[in-house]
Amino acid sequence: MTPDRPFAPPLPRNPARALPWFSVIAGSLLTAVPLVAHVPLLPPFGLLMLLGWRLLARYAMRRWAAAPLGFVDDLLSGQPLGSAVLLWSLCFLMIDLIEQRLAFRDFWQDWLIAAGLLALALWGGRLIAVPLAAHLDAAVVAQWGMAVLLFPLATRVAAWIDAKRAYP
Question: Which pTM was predicted?
C-alpha cells in the first residue's frame, strides 16, 4: 500500500522485500575489502546503493530505513558510531524536501541530487571523524568525484535487483 495507491494490496511478506536492505548492506561490506591505495578513492558504496534505491524506487524502503542501515554501515566501516545514522537520515530528509518541490524528475536531476547528498555525507563524515587540522580536502574531493561517477552503476544495480524481485 502506497500513498498514491491507498487501496492497492500491500506487498507480500517474502524475502524479496529484504533485497534492497541486503544490497545496501552488501555495498557497505565492499568498504571492508582489503585494498591498498595511496589516496582513499573508495566511495561509500552503501550510501550509493541507498541513494540509488531511494531515488529510483521510492517505496522500496521506508523513510526510517536510513537509520538502521547507517548503524550497520558505522559498524562495518569503522566510522564514529552514529555518524552514518545522522548523515544518511539527513540525506533521506533532504530527498523528501526535494520531492515536495519537484513534481517530476528525470535521471539527470537524480544524479545531481545524489551528487549534492554525497558531498554532504562525505564532508559531514570528514568533519565528524577527522580533526580540522588534518589536510584531507583533496582526498575527499577525489572520493566524491569517484562516488558521483559510480552513481549510475549503483542505480543500474538497484534497477536490476528491483526487476528481479518484482517478477519472480
Answer: 0.87
